[in-house]
Amino acid sequence: MEDMLFYDRMQFAFTITFHYLFPQLTMGLSLIVVYFKGKYLYSEIEKYNDAAKFWMKIFALNFAMGVVTGIPMEFQFGTNWAKFSELTGGIIGQTLAMEGMFSFFLESSFLGLFIFGEKLLGHKLHFVTGFLVFLGSWASGYLIIATHSWMQHPVGYEILENGRFVLNNFSALFSNPWLLPSYFHNQLASVITASFVVAAIGAFYILNNKHSEFGKLFVKTGVGFGLVSSILVAFPTGDLVAKNVVKHQPVTFAAMEGIFETEEGGSEIVLIGQPNMLEQKLDNKIAVPNILSFLTYQDWNAEIKGLNEFDKSTHPTNIPGLYYAYHIMVGLGTIFIGLMLLAAVQLFRKKLYTTKWILWALMFMLPFPYIANTTGWYTAELGRQPWLVYNLLRTADGASPNVSAGNTLFTLLGFIGLYLLLGLLFLMLAGKIINKGPQLNNTH
């Protein structure tokens, strides 16, 4: 049973991790494409329109990969997590169905019009189609986060005698206090990914003296969006998400921060340390006294409960993994703010495009927002364990009872091989688009 559950979780973790490499860029990039198109309508400077069309090519490629890698996610609910689907389908089925029927349909329909319909529609309607693509992608994210939020903090439900969950308050599903902070935190994180991708490609063009005019535009745009989103993802959205965890999942918060024992007189914030599960402490830690209490409760001496205050059966099942995922996310987020702030200062001083080490840094940082987004989701999912629906349905009770560990391992290896090929195909196609670059059209 333990082997079966382990492989079920590993398969879902691998497929959803690979899948989310693509939606995070499409959601963030849709906003930047709309910005470029809107800037063109306002200024009638053709390079903005060409920039919008160039990045929509990357968007379309990402969207296609997201669709292909997203399909197996649906099937796993029926194959590996049949009991979970049976018990909670009356609730999560509604949000997932709305995501597929409305948001995905809106996004995919108007994506085609944006790519192929500019001459037919004219620039104003073309902008509208781009905005609807953006609206569809962000609505899709909203409905997925609504599903996730219900699993983290279930509301508006009742449990029947047969153990099934049914929704008795539809509005509660969308007024869940977990939803909006998590949604905006996630969407801003996707904007960070898109900003770093745009800035990295722009830096690549400048450093290689290739498409330099677009390179400068991309760096300027990426730095602008990246600085704002990096700050907002930390405060207020990240702060609100953390306070939700403190309020509704205090044992998870203790594990995230590495608090094994309740501290008197205020809790320190740990910058570096390694969880020692045998001795229930952090080794080699570097910490700042009382800061965590102030950030959490605006009180320097507020008490934050340690893991020792909670029954071990409620502890997250992988405390080191949760701790490291959270600290990697926070650490990278801090670096993002610092780099984008430095780049913005150089941009203001009109020295950014000639400051090669910053351009190299922007290129080098391209994969790190993906890592930050991934570890952010790992923090949320590892923090909810050992529950599928927090405090109501354990992960072990949601797995399909008749799927063997061997079958799941076999399909997991198949997914790894298939997704490796898909990843190589994506890099090859994206590389072609980037090497060709946008083409400046001087006609109106």
UniProtKB/TrEMBL annotation:
<feature type="transmembrane region" description="Helical">
    <location>
        <begin position="409"/>
        <end position="430"/>
    </location>
</feature>
<dbReference type="Pfam" id="PF01654">
    <property type="entry name" value="Cyt_bd_oxida_I"/>
</dbReference>
<comment type="similarity">
    <text>Belongs to the cytochrome ubiquinol oxidase subunit 1 family.</text>
</comment>
<feature type="transmembrane region" description="Helical">
    <location>
        <begin position="323"/>
        <end position="345"/>
    </location>
</feature>
<keyword id="KW-0472">Membrane</keyword>
<dbReference type="GO" id="GO:0070069">
    <property type="term" value="C:cytochrome complex"/>
</dbReference>
<dbReference type="InterPro" id="IPR002585">
    <property type="entry name" value="Cyt-d_ubiquinol_oxidase_su_1"/>
</dbReference>
<keyword id="KW-0249">Electron transport</keyword>
<keyword id="KW-0813">Transport</keyword>
<feature type="transmembrane region" description="Helical">
    <location>
        <begin position="357"/>
        <end position="380"/>
    </location>
</feature>
<dbReference type="GO" id="GO:0016682">
    <property type="term" value="F:oxidoreductase activity, acting on diphenols and related substances as donors, oxygen as acceptor"/>
</dbReference>
<keyword id="KW-0812">Transmembrane</keyword>
<dbReference type="GO" id="GO:0009055">
    <property type="term" value="F:electron transfer activity"/>
</dbReference>
<feature type="transmembrane region" description="Helical">
    <location>
        <begin position="12"/>
        <end position="34"/>
    </location>
</feature>
<keyword id="KW-1003">Cell membrane</keyword>
<feature type="transmembrane region" description="Helical">
    <location>
        <begin position="54"/>
        <end position="71"/>
    </location>
</feature>
<keyword id="KW-0349">Heme</keyword>
<feature type="transmembrane region" description="Helical">
    <location>
        <begin position="127"/>
        <end position="145"/>
    </location>
</feature>
<keyword id="KW-0479">Metal-binding</keyword>
<dbReference type="GO" id="GO:0020037">
    <property type="term" value="F:heme binding"/>
</dbReference>
<dbReference type="GO" id="GO:0005886">
    <property type="term" value="C:plasma membrane"/>
</dbReference>
<feature type="transmembrane region" description="Helical">
    <location>
        <begin position="91"/>
        <end position="115"/>
    </location>
</feature>
<protein>
    <submittedName>
        <fullName>Cytochrome d ubiquinol oxidase subunit I</fullName>
    </submittedName>
</protein>
<keyword id="KW-1133">Transmembrane helix</keyword>
<dbReference type="GO" id="GO:0046872">
    <property type="term" value="F:metal ion binding"/>
</dbReference>
<keyword id="KW-0408">Iron</keyword>
<dbReference type="GO" id="GO:0019646">
    <property type="term" value="P:aerobic electron transport chain"/>
</dbReference>
<feature type="transmembrane region" description="Helical">
    <location>
        <begin position="183"/>
        <end position="205"/>
    </location>
</feature>
<feature type="transmembrane region" description="Helical">
    <location>
        <begin position="217"/>
        <end position="235"/>
    </location>
</feature>
